[in-house]
Amino acid sequence: MPLLLTLLRRIGSAIPSVFGVILVTFVLARALPGDPAAYYAGASATPDSIAQIRSQLGLDQPLIVQFFGYLGQLAHGNLGQSTSSGQAVLSDLIERLPASIELTLTALMFALIVAIPLGIWAATRPGSWVDHLCRLLVTLGAAFPTFFTALTFVYIFYFQLDVAPEPLGRLSEIYYTMPPRVTGLLLIDTLLAGDPEAFRAAFAQLILPAISLGLFALAPIARVTRAAMLEALGSDYCRTARAMGLSRGRILFVIALRNAALPILNVLGMVFSFLLGANVLIEKVFAWPGIGAYAVNAVIASDYAAVQGFVLMMALLFIVLNLVVDLFASMADPRVRYDD
Amino acid sequence: MTAPPLLTIDKLSLDFDTRSGTVKALEDIDLTLNKGEILGIVGESGSGKSVLSFAIMGLLDEAAKLRADKISFGGMALNAKSVAEMRGRELSMIFQSPRTALNPIRKVGKQIEDVLVRHAPLPRKAAKSAAIAALRQVRIPDPERRYNAYPFELSGGMCQRVMIAMALACDPTLLIADEPTTGLDVTTQAVVMDLIRDIAAERNMAVILITHDLALAGEYCDRVAVMHAGHIVEVAPAAQVAQNALRHPYARRLFAATPAASAELEDLAAIPGSLPDLRGTLPACRYMARCEIARPDCAQAPLPAHDISPSHLVRCRYCP
Ligand SMILES: Nc1ncnc2c1ncn2[C@@H]1O[C@H](COP(=O)(O)OP(=O)(O)O)[C@@H](O)[C@H]1O
Ligand SMILES: [Mg+2]
Fold first, then answer.
1. In terms of pTM, does the model score above 0.90?
2. In the structure, what pLDDT confidence band is assigned to residue B220 with cuts at 50, 70 and 90?
3. Residue B228 β-bridge partners
4. Of A155, B41, B92, B97, which is the most exposed, with the fewest CB atoms less than 10 Å away?
């Protein structure tokens, strides 16, 4: 019950942020250089036709009226028309979002699988070689920018060793058929379509971009896991558990790890947001048809509706992400549940 | 013919290797404890009371170098392996600051249950009623409801009772209580101490009560050992405390520093000087630098031990 209450309360407290985000994207669109009316009217426009288009677009209305008009559009899921793709921005984004989500989640999964055991292991043997390895990885992960790792990987594994597929998107449609879209995540959709070949190919395409992205996430997760586990293992309650004769495994994996879950969870939320940002570069390197690449193209092409839609969607995504982290946090720690 | 003691410690010494040198935390500790006996260990903060109890419990970290001619418990030698078998079962311990000593994110009832289940193959349901019974036994009101509480929802005194319930869940023969009432208010202190004494009497359980409060030890214990800087300087029947019959200059200072000894607050005597640095070389008597009756040969080993009576031992060359 307290969980549900927390959830409702957190959703309630997210409403102002959503409103703020909408306001910012609205102002952003007005503040961008250039006159959309002139843009739509084309090169051969007269002042009269520009004015006509301006009133058609509602741009001659007071700002407050325009803002409510914008809210109305959003309520109908209308994010405007992309000038570069010629399609509705919303359908562009929905089309491309799963590619980015799949990449980010895979990267995160990779980072978790490596970083959490490494952090735990390092914490149980401070000063040992595992601890040093952990520290080395943390330093390296923080030192190299993702696009550099990505390009190095492409150079080594595709160009030199030829063990990785061509870094061109999610699935080569020359050799494989795209599965019918169910979740939009190829790893799932290929399996649903009963096409293990395509699954393998899609997975192969994912490996390099996901690892380049994941390496970047590994460092903060391993660092926080190690620190949180060290703190938990040195705590009074773990000493109590030892004094009560509880088993080593229970102390390490149940008592200490559950107590360390809260800081780990918080850093995961942060890392996830980083990853969504870092996606932009990785998607460029691997010709990944995600929203990061879409946004870059939109900025280059002065496609304002697309940029606005992208910013709005990312902001909403962050808000949802924070909600999810909060929810997990209150499951992990009763003190968070009663905290507000 | 008296029964053999429950716990025997002969010549226990403990060093910590640290970056700034070797800390000689304990030296030549001799101690015996009989079944059902309550022994107080008294000394100011830093005198080695906690590390001594960790040494008995096998809870020392890796930097600790422990040596002893003999440590035996219930007729068995205590070593890393045997003590691991006995922890929580034969030997149990409660700590200072009960709020942090409990797992903050697990219901207190479940924490007791975890200990029960660990040491006896109980179905969860039986374990739950046993946990509630344990809570009832430490006189927690409404134990069915408190079973579901988290430590942060309980007062310090309540948390200490939960700790006691947990430590006693498997009916140990020895309980080590490391400053169990420090940080609790005076009334709660008395409640917790009465509880420990009553349960010890009921179950014929031995208790090592660690405290820096000589008066408290005198009141609740059968015997009192006074520690200073890693030495046990005096062991005496607790009755001697109330009669101001302790002999060692440090023990006498401790007595003068208890509120019971001096009616007026101004009379409370502070102990002059501070504990010596336990790194580097130390004189045989580690109290020497603070002592008003010290003479130069107090620095010479060995630290003498003389029996005032069979149950009263003082380690001082010149005390009356
Ligand atoms: N892990 C450790 N490493 C180095 N020195 C320690 C360690 N634990 C305790 N000590 C030292 O041992 C001495 C006794 O400490 P402790 O047993 O905690 O005292 P008390 O419980 O009587 O207040 C202190 O001087 C302390 O600094
Ligand atoms: Mg202590």
1. no
2. very high
3. B231
4. A155
